[in-house]
What does this fold into?
Amino acid sequence: QVQLVESGGGLVQAGGSLRLSCAASGRTFSTYAMGWFRQAPGKEREFVGTINWSGSKILYADSVKGRFTISRDNAKNTVYLQMNSLKPEDTAVYYCAVSQCGRLCTPKNEYEYDYWGQGTQVTVSS
It folds into this structure.
């Protein structure tokens, strides 16, 4: 069993920045791929980005590429989502998730993830 706790959400003006953190329990954190997803009101949950176990491979959704950065610190069992140049359309609940798909994978489909955090709200005002 893996537990994930997100933090760092809040209210920010357009053009601002936030950094989300996701702390994971479990001794095998370093073997997991980690993903970030978001869900805006009335919309389906969508992929934001994913990072493999070592951080050597990172994928982003086109909508956030160049503005968001995912990183991880395996010694701290934590993955981060640095969000810069935020836009009102980035407003959503952001979720981190764990995939036990193996060390080489960077899944983009939410069904490939095994554990999810409770989510943290990000609101970007115009």
